[in-house]
Write a structure and sequence with these properties.
homodimer; 2 strands; mainly alpha; 135 residues; DNA-binding
DNA sequence: CCTCAGGTTCGGCTCTTATCGAACCTAAGA
DNA sequence: TCTTAGGTTCGATAAGAGCCGAACCTGAGG
């Protein structure tokens, strides 16, 4: 059963839900950063510097949390997230290795974005300009 | 470069795009069915019996095609699709095994959707009632 | 007590996606 | 040639996903 904070148990994780969580470039980047850190590393949402507002950040971490990719624990006035590495390895063996071997394309590497922009068709949901210009 | 029919080359495939294609339960089911068949099996879009209209089917196969998961070849009056197994194994080793080991949950069985609706939480992007009932 | 930093929730906005029907295209076959 | 089956394209529509700011909550630390 999903607990009060929205974490599914290991058996409740579903692959399409996890893949959906990973299909957003920001969330993909978060998981990738976790994979480069030692197991069990805890980080706050804001520490990733994703360049979005707090409410948007909260939304993305909710998707990650409810898919089962990360766990968030209340630590006093803050809230620390960590990758559920063991659960994921057990439930979906090979998934984390797949991600760690495939760095995010064009969203994280700023040096070749011009070339990537030409190669990537516009139809993918990768870049979302949104209302960055403001009202 | 993407060819005239929208197939990316092996090197152009991007994991988040593939994961996005797989995050839809219908498309996930198509790939899973391919994985249960012998390598190289060709099928028409309609042969999957997904219960959606032709135009919707065409849309889903376009997403699959443009992500790189399947290839569609003109065969006279028809168009046959097959899983790009070798390309996918080379580009993302472990991905296909991951899918074949995790059957789609509760979304594919149309006969007990009422029960599945009770079991699955409403928040996941798995089930889309849409306008299935029609106007 | 007050302030402050990290997160959540809410309302609202825009863009995308899944879906349909209708019209059209192509090649096989009667 | 006409029909037919498989697919595509074109609107249109409803739902969802990202995004924001504003208001709020919580606990640490002055």
């Amino acid at each position: 059963m999903v607990d009060a904070e929205g974490h599914p148990s290991r058996d409740e994780m579903e692959l399409p839900v996890i893949l959906n969580a990973l299909s957003d470039p920001l969330r993909y980047k978060v998981i990738q950063e976790f994979l480069e850190l030692p197991d069990g590393t805890e980080r706050t949402c804001l520490s990733f510097g994703l360049g979005v507002s707090k409410s948007t950040l909260s939304h993305h971490f909710r998707v990650l949390r409810e898919s089962g990719l990360v766990q968030q624990i209340n630590r006093g006035n803050s809230r620390k997230a960590h990758l559920r590495r063991e659960d994921l390895e057990e439930r979906f063996p090979g998934l984390l290795e797949l991600i760690s071997r495939n760095p995010a394309p064009a969203a994280g590497t700023a040096k070749d974005d011009a070339d990537a922009g030409a190669a990537a068709p516009s139809r993918s949901g990768s870049d979302r300009p949104g209302r960055a210009t403001g009202p």
